């Protein structure tokens, strides 16, 4: 009996990720009727596995999970590592800072490698490097060696994030990028949640210890790296690793081939006002996230068990996971209704919500570890996670993909990580220094010392005050800086579209959306003009879209 042919011409750049533009004949009615649900499911799974976009983005999301597991693992075992190394909170914070700072300053390296080489290979190298160093850290015997290991770990992490984000931007079109980045944020947050749960609970097992959790995470990281090497694909490279020059030229890819060319492209990125504005807000906006590495320890100081503390931290991570997906979805909707302001407004609401919730969390909730208190923390942390995690998937990541040519996306994501992370990495040390030198924290990063209950509660109050300062103040400044995007983003977005049109040698038509949009100011006349690429009109209506069309015959 003749079997039904399963369509294999999957277009990885298709907006919906399904069958490409070539028509595929449906199965004959009689044959379709004979298919069992299991056969239908098998056909769908086959289509998904052979779809390069689905396969690649799936592996990218797995790498994102392991990146966040690796990142969250150390803060979740601060108490156990502090006991092993006899370290104070400030010393433990420097472990996290070493990783974050080196990751930040080496992110341009990851961007440049992703700019010139197959990005799936760059991601593989990052996974292998951080996996090996994570295993090495589990065998260290002093805090000094720990600093060195965690610094090298940051190099591995810096190779993964820029290439992952630029691949997602390449595989999805503008109207779908918010959801795509939201899914990437969700999987990353799930990784953070798993890291918090896994590290805190396995470290308490005497036969396993915190060293065992680091070894198993290292093994999983190396495995994900190898899977990415074998099965993921960069759409700008062939299966044997050669750059697709023809396709690259068609999409505006002109990789720099000299040091001068590289610096010219770097200068073009850092001179974009929207990029600078996002970096400025990111420097202060990332402080709270770096400061919250002490949150598991804070809950333990309140008297909560290891299981309760890790469960609450996992609840917060789960909230940020779902919040990232919701934020990306809301950003896409808002950008269609208000092209120049929608994403920014969604982001500002998210940032603002963190301010009152931080006050509730660190000042209004009870200072004890009773079961009723755990329930209150559960609801506040879940709500906080759902609301404060919209900025990156709803606004920052999609906007970065819109203000530079496609071939520069790895670099812009890398420099975002570099400029933001280098300064924001000081969040954890600032929290520990404020707690110790301003708010009266004394002793090591342990619980259960002499006069345990009162001592631990005093430590918790000191840490709560430091955490409050390092969340409310940065988020307030971040909210203010985001307002500047309302001025810079519309111009930079239009300029990027015009530059892309100029590179492709096409005509540009500026036309008002049919029927207008809610974002178009009253009184703006409808426009319809064809121009050779030039500066955008300052008086053009905000709701206009820029459409790239093929030049007329004979032009």
From TrEMBL:
<comment type="similarity">
    <text>Belongs to the major facilitator superfamily. Spinster (TC 2.A.1.49) family.</text>
</comment>
<feature type="domain" description="Major facilitator superfamily (MFS) profile">
    <location>
        <begin position="56"/>
        <end position="477"/>
    </location>
</feature>
<feature type="transmembrane region" description="Helical">
    <location>
        <begin position="274"/>
        <end position="301"/>
    </location>
</feature>
<dbReference type="InterPro" id="IPR011701">
    <property type="entry name" value="MFS"/>
</dbReference>
<dbReference type="InterPro" id="IPR044770">
    <property type="entry name" value="MFS_spinster-like"/>
</dbReference>
<protein>
    <recommendedName>
        <fullName>Major facilitator superfamily (MFS) profile domain-containing protein</fullName>
    </recommendedName>
</protein>
<feature type="transmembrane region" description="Helical">
    <location>
        <begin position="210"/>
        <end position="232"/>
    </location>
</feature>
<dbReference type="GO" id="GO:0022857">
    <property type="term" value="F:transmembrane transporter activity"/>
</dbReference>
<dbReference type="InterPro" id="IPR020846">
    <property type="entry name" value="MFS_dom"/>
</dbReference>
<dbReference type="GO" id="GO:0016020">
    <property type="term" value="C:membrane"/>
</dbReference>
<dbReference type="Pfam" id="PF07690">
    <property type="entry name" value="MFS_1"/>
</dbReference>
<feature type="transmembrane region" description="Helical">
    <location>
        <begin position="180"/>
        <end position="198"/>
    </location>
</feature>
<keyword id="KW-1133">Transmembrane helix</keyword>
<keyword id="KW-0813">Transport</keyword>
<dbReference type="InterPro" id="IPR036259">
    <property type="entry name" value="MFS_trans_sf"/>
</dbReference>
<keyword id="KW-0472">Membrane</keyword>
<feature type="transmembrane region" description="Helical">
    <location>
        <begin position="374"/>
        <end position="392"/>
    </location>
</feature>
<keyword id="KW-0812">Transmembrane</keyword>
<feature type="transmembrane region" description="Helical">
    <location>
        <begin position="342"/>
        <end position="362"/>
    </location>
</feature>
<feature type="transmembrane region" description="Helical">
    <location>
        <begin position="307"/>
        <end position="330"/>
    </location>
</feature>
<feature type="transmembrane region" description="Helical">
    <location>
        <begin position="463"/>
        <end position="485"/>
    </location>
</feature>
<feature type="region of interest" description="Disordered">
    <location>
        <begin position="1"/>
        <end position="35"/>
    </location>
</feature>
């Amino acid at each position: 009996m003749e079997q039904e042919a399963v369509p294999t011409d999957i277009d990885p750049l298709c907006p919906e990720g399904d069958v490409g533009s070539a028509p595929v004949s449906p199965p004959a009615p009689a044959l379709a009727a004979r298919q069992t649900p299991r056969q239908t499911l098998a056909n769908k799974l086959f289509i998904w596995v052979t779809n390069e976009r689905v396969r690649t983005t799936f592996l990218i999301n797995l790498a994102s999970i392991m990146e966040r597991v690796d990142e969250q693992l150390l803060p979740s075992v601060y108490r156990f590592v502090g006991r092993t190394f006899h370290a104070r909170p400030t010393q433990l914070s420097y472990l996290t800072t070493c990783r974050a700072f080196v990751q930040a300053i080496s992110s341009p390296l990851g961007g440049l490698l992703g700019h010139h080489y197959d990005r799936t290979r760059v991601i593989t190298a990052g996974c292998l490097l951080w996996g090996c160093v994570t295993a090495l850290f589990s065998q260290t015997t002093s805090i000094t060696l720990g600093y060195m290991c965690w610094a090298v770990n940051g190099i591995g992490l810096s190779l993964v994030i820029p290439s992952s984000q630029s691949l997602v931007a390449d595989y999805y079109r503008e109207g779908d990028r918010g959801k795509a980045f939201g899914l990437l944020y969700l999987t990353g947050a799930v990784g953070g949640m798993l890291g918090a749960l896994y590290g805190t609970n396995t470290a308490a097992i005497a036969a396993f210890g915190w060293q065992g959790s680091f070894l198993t995470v290292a093994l999983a990281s190396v495995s994900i790296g190898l899977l990415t090497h074998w099965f993921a694909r960069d759409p700008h490279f062939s299966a044997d690793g050669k750059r697709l020059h023809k396709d690259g030229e068609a999409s505006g890819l002109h990789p720099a081939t000299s040091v001068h060319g590289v610096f010219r492209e770097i200068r073009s990125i850092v001179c974009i006002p929207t990029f600078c504005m996002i970096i400025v807000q990111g420097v202060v906006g990332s402080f709270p996230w770096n400061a919250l590495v002490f949150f598991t320890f804070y809950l333990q100081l309140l008297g909560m068990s290891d299981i309760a503390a890790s469960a609450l931290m996992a609840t917060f991570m789960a909230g940020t996971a779902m919040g990232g997906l919701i934020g990306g979805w809301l950003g896409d909707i808002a950008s269609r209704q208000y092209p120049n302001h929608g994403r920014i407004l969604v982001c500002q609401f998210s940032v603002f919500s963190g301010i009152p919730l931080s006050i509730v969390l660190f000042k209004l909730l009870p200072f004890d570890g009773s079961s009723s208190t755990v329930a209150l923390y559960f609801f506040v942390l879940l709500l906080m996670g759902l609301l404060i995690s919209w900025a990156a998937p709803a606004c920052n990541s999609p906007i970065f993909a819109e203000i530079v040519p496609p071939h520069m996306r790895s670099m812009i994501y890398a420099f975002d990580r570099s400029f933001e992370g280098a300064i924001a990495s000081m969040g954890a040390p600032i929290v520990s220094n404020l707690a110790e030198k301003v708010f009266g924290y004394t002793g090591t990063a342990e619980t259960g010392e002499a006069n345990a209950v009162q001592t631990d509660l005093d430590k918790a109050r000191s840490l709560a005050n430091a955490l409050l300062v390092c969340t409310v103040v940065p988020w307030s400044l971040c909210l203010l800086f985001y307002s500047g995007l309302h001025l810079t983003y519309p111009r930079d977005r239009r300029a990027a579209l015009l530059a892309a049109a100029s590179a492709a040698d096409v005509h540009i038509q500026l036309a008002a959306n049919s029927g207008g949009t809610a974002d178009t100011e009253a009184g703006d006349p409808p426009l319809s003009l064809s121009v050779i690429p030039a500066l955008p009109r300052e008086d053009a209506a905000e709701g206009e879209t820029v459409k790239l069309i093929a030049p007329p015959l004979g032009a």
